[in-house]
Amino acid sequence: MKIKRDLQLKIEKWLFKGKILIVYGARQVGKTTLAKTLLLEHGNIADYYNCEIIQVRQALEKEDPISLKKFLGDAKLIVLDEAQKVPNIGRTLKLLIDTYPDMQIIATGSSSFDLSNQVNEPLTGRAIEFSLYPFSLRELSQCYRPYELDAQLPFYLRFGLYPDIAQSGETDAETLLTNISNQYLYKDVLEFEHLKRSDLLVQLLQLLALQIGQEVSIHELAVSLQCARDTVLRYLDLLEKSFVIFHLRAFSRNPRKEISKKRKIYFYDVGIRNSLISRYTQLPLRDDVGVLWENFCISERRKFLQITDQHPQQYFWRSLTQKEVDYVEEYNNILRGYEFKWKKNNVNPPKDFLTYPNSSVTVINHDNYTDFFGCG
Q1: What are phi and psi of 23, to 5 degrees?
Q2: Domain count of the chain?
Q3: Residues 167 and 87 occupy one common structural domain
Q4: 88, 61 contact by CB (below 8 A)
Q5: 52 and 181 both lie in a single domain
Q6: Of the candidates 316, 304, 312, 310, the residue with the CA atom closest to the CA atom of residue 340
Q7: Do β-strands 215-216 and 245-250 pair in parallel, antiparallel, or remain unpaired?
Q8: DSSP states of 220-267 as a string?
Q9: Model-level pTM greater than 0.90?
Q10: 312 and 367 together in one domain
Q11: Which of 62, 128, 267, 367 has the greatest number of C-beta atoms within 10 Å?
């Protein structure tokens, strides 16, 4: 099954315009496949360099344009995969683009905390950054008719949308997902923090997996893990920059009636969430379908907004009297609220939220999600 990533079109618009193109994304989401596809269509596959190979890394460490050119040759398009593995890669890239402006470089990184730290200052004004996520339903709609996609939806809610998994059968999905979770999920954070054991990190993620859809207390997490509050905040930040989790802040313009300092944390991929707590049960037998659907919907919406260049502020909303709206987008003083219900539940929008000018609340369920995800 050949699926063209939506991000490919965005990247192609910037090819050969004098910018280094940087693609971030978690391991196993398809960065290498995308990069090689771009090479096949716009360059030569021989100009792919895996920076986890020591010989490649050593060659790119030399901050000398002549030596770099000798190694890279006369290629018009070059891919440096897992570029964060090269020490001082930002200075190397700056040398290349300043000396050889006609050379198009695409660099990939599985963690923004490491690569960004190296490239942001040296490449100011010289780089365009992109983020690649697991498959979206919008991308899968290239290969599936609407009714086929709908039939697959329960599978995606259980096992997620990592490319290898979304294209596998149920027999292999659990094994593949466990492998990604155990072998790749924490690798960058562990290396960055020089940790030999992942116990604390796994325990933190398991607690978060059990709290999707709920407001998260940093203090309570620290108490549960028996560690410092700053350690929890540090790990949350690194997990976000490794594209494992993301957070929503509370929306409030009336602190006397609404919470304003809380956050909710979600997973970019619900399969990873389920893997962390070993919960792959069929949907009719689950007691967490509601929050699973909520996480899935918000994640898919973020993918759709990114690929369509829409940039609303994103929140959740809750009053002190426990009235809530799962997800809120604010754009040009318009507030669009969304409630996520797997079944066709009747929902009465909170009147307190609707007192805001230009506000609305829409219910998204498994019968009307296609437009919300951009796969209609």
Answers
A1: -115, 115
A2: 2
A3: no
A4: yes
A5: no
A6: 316
A7: unpaired
A8: HHHHHHTS-HHHHHHHHHHHHHTTSEEEEEEP-S-TTTB--S-EEEEE
A9: yes
A10: yes
A11: 267
Which sign does the torsion angle of CA 361, 366, 368, 369 carry? Answer: positive
Q: Is residue 1 part of a domain?
A: no
User: Directed axis angle between helix 170-183 and helix 146-159, to 10°?
Assistant: 50
147 and 121 within one domain: no
Q: pLDDT tens per residue, the chain (376 residues)? A: 689 999 999 999 999 999 999 999 998 999 999 999 999 999 999 999 999 999 999 999 998 889 999 999 999 999 999 998 888 888 888 889 999 999 999 999 887 656 666 666 777 788 899 999 999 999 999 999 989 999 999 999 999 999 999 999 888 999 999 888 887 777 777 777 766 667 888 899 999 999 999 999 999 999 999 999 999 998 998 899 889 999 999 998 877 666 667 899 999 999 999 999 999 999 999 999 999 999 999 999 999 999 999 999 999 999 888 889 999 999 999 999 999 999 877 788 899 999 999 999 999 998 899 999 998 7
Answer yes or no: do 218 and 151 share one domain: yes
Report residue 11 as tokens.
């990247």
- Asked if 269 and 243 count as a contact pair (C-beta separation under 8 A), the reply is no
Range of the domain at 92: 6-131
- Same domain for 183 and 76, yes or no, is no
Residues 123 and 143 in one domain: no
Task: Compute the Cα dihedral for 83, 88, 91, 95 and give only its sign.
Answer: negative
Q: State in Å, rounded, how far the first CA of the chain is from the last one.
A: 20
Domain with residue 55: its CATH number is 3.40.50.300
